[in-house]
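User: Show me a protein chain along with its predicted structure.
Assistant: Here is one chain, sequence first, then structure tokens.
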Amino acid sequence: MNQVSKGFSFTRLLRFLPAVIWMTVIFVLSSRTSDEINTFLPFFQTFFPFMEGFDWGHFVSYFILALTIDYGIGKTADRLWMKVIIVVLCGLYGVTDEYHQSFVGGRMPDAMDVRNDLIGAAIWTALAAVPWIRKRWRKAAP
């Protein structure tokens, strides 16, 4: 009963902390009403005048989520089947995020947002498969 399953360690579990923190950030941002979000847009438009909305935020947010999940998994994430799992997990979280938004004033679920979430996650997993990127990444996330 006191035995810990093979391969499990508290340190290993801590590697998923960045993913949990980032999921919390996504949740908090999704809790903002459309009026609150639109107050941030002029600030970003001073740096990126071409910005018309926050659709790019889905790409970036789920790119980072996939990266943090990859970090938690470690070198096993280099396997193709694990890359698929990472993208699926990000997609499932994106679906729950859109459902959550249905309860927030001025916000509504949008399938295109989930598509953008999946694209962001897939871009990370594809980049992480590039040999010279993977080699550097595994030094930071063995």
